[in-house]
Design brief:
The structure holds 2 protein chains of 2 kinds.
Chain A (H helix, E strand, L loop, with lengths): L2 H13 L3 H13 L11 H12 L5 H12 L2
Helix pairs in contact in A: 1-2, 1-4, 2-3, 3-4
Chain B lengths: L4 H72 L1 H29 L3 H31 L5 H17 L3 H20 L3 H19 L4 H112 L14 H34 L2
Helix pairs in contact in B: 1-2, 1-7, 2-3, 3-4, 3-7, 4-7, 5-6, 6-7, 7-8
Classes of the chains: A mainly alpha, B mainly alpha.
Chain lengths: ~70, ~375
């Protein structure tokens, strides 16, 4: 299993079917990488963007919680 | 710890069952206590009442045999009367003492115990004084026995020796008349008169024309008569004295027996009152416990009901808003059971709908900008 898969699995508990496109969008738009190329060193940056962008769809607290979980992977 | 609705409902019913079982157990215990204390109280009251009645019966039986003894001494003789009646009177007193001891053991209060102790002491005193009367009666004797028998013997002896001597016979008849007066009336003045007549008889013997040896033996018989008469007087006095003491003992014992009968009635009444009080107390206790349990059940049931219905109400509200296109509503996580999971699912659903809605709006915006020349 890839790291990207793990990240989307965690994200699915907060965003359901929107997790995969949401996280893919963060990878391509802000990290400038293909989602499948996601590596451990990208996680802190990805978590930061997930927290920022996630507040559009989630509570600020939940977005922070999701970011923390992803950073800890 | 995560708890399901099922476990919450189960624990609620478990607690209700436990409370009901507790009330039932306390109710059963209270009934047992009521039954036991009522039984004890009634048993003690009935037993004391029965003992008191038996004491009265024994006392009256003793008194009956005692009267039989005193009445039948003259017809049956002291020994026969003692065998037939006095021993039975003393046996009845023994029984009375046994009953008093039993009453002392059963009595619930110090005052009742003291009452039966007093009866026991008085019964002992009665038995002792009655024994003294019987002994005094035995010593006194009747007709041919005891002091009276000896006295009659002495009188017959002197009568036999001095008959047919006119002057001496007159003195002797006067002596016998005063003696009979004493025996009939019991008056002390006849004692002195009889003793005076003995001296007159002895003087008449001295003056009579009798051989010197016969005079000596006749005067010795007169002295013997005197001694036997005085012994009879002493025996009578002993009987009188012991009878007086014994009468006082019987009077006090009768009063105590009456008192015991009243105590028995009081004990019965007190036991009924005690049983009634215990029953009332138990009923009040059970009612209070039942009310307490009902209040606790209502309070706990209400809490469980609120815990279940509040999240459902919140979810209904969320579903209503989302179905009308309002995605701004905040989905709260209110509990950790199945409804909490449903809340999380709703939260994910709303987040996903928001995301896809934003995606489509972004796509529409991009398409719009591309169409512009």
């Amino acid at each position: 299993m890839s790291l990207y898969h793990d990240v989307t699995t965690v994200g699915a508990t907060y965003l359901g079917p929107a997790a995969e496109p949401f996280i893919g969008r963060q990878c391509t738009l802000y990290l400038k990488i293909q989602p499948q190329a996601l590596a451990k060193e990208h996680l802190p940056e990805l978590a930061k963007w997930i927290e920022v962008a996630g507040t559009r769809f989630l509570d600020a607290m939940k977005a922070k919680e999701l970011a923390t979980k992803i950073a800890a992977l | 710890m995560k708890r399901s609705i099922r476990s919450k409902i189960q624990s609620a019913f478990g607690i209700m069952n436990w409370l009901m079982a507790t009330v039932a157990a306390i109710g059963a215990l209270a009934l047992f206590v009521v039954h036991y204390s009522a039984h004890q109280a009634l048993h003690v009251g009935a037993r004391l009442s029965h003992i008191s009645l038996e004491i009265q019966v024994s006392n009256l039986t003793a008194r009956k045999y005692e009267k039989d003894f005193l009445l039948n001494i003259k017809t049956e003789g002291v020994e026969n009367a003692k065998r037939d009646y006095a021993t039975k009177a003393l046996a009845a007193v023994d029984r009375l003492q046994q009953l008093a001891r039993e009453g002392e053991r059963v009595a619930p209060t110090d005052a009742d115990r003291e009452r039966f102790q007093s009866i026991s002491r008085l019964a002992r005193s009665y038995a002792s004084t009655f024994g003294d009367v019987v002994a005094a009666k035995q010593r006194r004797g009747h007709v041919d026995s005891g002091a009276e028998g000896q006295f009659r013997g002495a009188a017959h002896q002197i009568e036999g020796q001095l008959k047919n001597l006119d002057k001496i016979q007159i003195a002797m008849l006067m002596m016998r008349r005063s003696e009979k007066d004493y025996l009939l009336r019991g008056d002390d003045k006849y004692i002195a008169l009889t003793l005076e007549n003995v001296e007159k008889l002895k003087a008449a013997i001295d003056q009579a024309h009798l051989p010197a040896a016969e005079k000596v033996s006749s005067k010795a018989l007169a002295d013997g008569y005197r001694v036997a008469f005085l012994a009879l007087v002493d025996a009578d006095r002993e009987v009188t004295a012991s009878t007086a003491i014994y009468h006082e003992a019987t009077r006090r014992l009768e009063l105590a027996a009456d008192d015991a009968a009243k105590a028995g009635e009081q004990a019965s009444e007190a036991s009924l009152a005690s049983a009634s009080w215990t029953a009332s107390g138990a009923v009040i206790l059970v009612i209070l416990l039942s009310l307490g349990t009902i209040a606790a059940g209502v309070r706990y049931g209400s809490r469980i009901s609120i815990n279940i219905t509040r999240p459902v109400k919140h979810l209904t509200e969320v579903a209503e808003h989302v179905s009308l296109g309002d995605l701004s509503i905040k989905v709260e996580h209110t509990c950790d059971d199945e409804i909490g999971e449903l809340e999380d699912s709703f939260a994910r659903l709303v987040a996903a709908v928001k995301f896809f809605q934003a995606e489509s709006q972004d796509a529409l915006a991009v398409a719009g900008s591309e169409e512009k020349p």
